[in-house]
Design a protein that fits this description.
- By secondary structure, the chain is mainly α.
- It has helices at residues 4-25, 33-53, 59-83, 90-95, 102-128, 140-164, 168-181, 197-201.
- Helix 5 (102-128) packs antiparallel against helix 6.
Length: 206
């Protein structure tokens, strides 16, 4: 059985995550669908460009691009939201007695909730493209836990540093964009020159 303080923290995290979800779509018409629209447009654009360059893009290539972009979108939205989570909630931090590190955690979990919709769509398209479920799918929970662990660790650190260095909000957006292009999403790892292969090997998104 979980202790009362742990239950309280879990409830606070759940409540904050729900509030962040509602706040992110407040005043919009399409709501949560905006999270899916951006990667869908990127998938369409890059698939079209590659089809022009390579004179045709295979379904395998399109699906590979889709997987990479949806996962990158998860990292991008989670880390950007986590970075500014504490600074944009000064009133809550100063007036309410609670662990302020729950703020970046809540942002990450709210973005992860939206990511699951994109993931489900990927699974459907994967099956449609002929990627039938197999034993490799058993690795997905482990890979998810590794990714969520990275996001929570990095997100909490960025949120704390951003309290003192507000430029970090801008810097992280550039870094994430660079990470997109140095990650084998719209190209395969074998085209990377040997002397730069370490970038792919140590890239958490690769």
């Amino acid at each position: 059985m979980l202790s009362k303080p742990i239950k309280s923290k879990i409830f606070q995290l759940y409540t904050l995550s729900r509030l962040r979800l509602k706040a992110n779509i407040q005043g919009t018409y399409l709501g949560y669908f905006w999270w899916l629209i951006e990667p869908a447009l990127l998938i369409a654009v890059y698939s079209y460009l590659l089809s022009l360059l390579l004179r045709g893009a295979s379904s395998e290539m399109v699906f590979s691009i889709a997987v990479g972009i949806v996962n990158w979108k998860w990292w991008q939205s989670s880390l950007q939201a986590a970075t500014k989570s504490i600074t944009k909630s000064k009133r809550i931090v100063t007036e309410i007695n609670f662990n302020f590190l729950l703020l970046p955690f809540a942002e990450i979990f709210s973005q992860t909730y939206l990511y699951f919709f994109g993931f489900c769509i990927l699974v459907i398209f994967g099956i449609a493209f002929g990627y039938s479920p197999n034993f490799n799918y058993l690795n997905l929970p482990f890979l998810f836990l590794v990714n969520i662990g990275f996001l929570i660790s990095i997100g909490a650190l960025l949120a704390l540093v951003n309290i003192f260095i507000r430029d970090l909000e801008v810097i992280i957006s550039f870094v994430l964009r660079i990470l997109f292009y140095i990650t084998p999403i719209i190209y395969t790892p074998d085209v990377v020159p040997a002397k730069f292969s370490f970038i792919v090997e140590f890239n958490p998104l690769a």
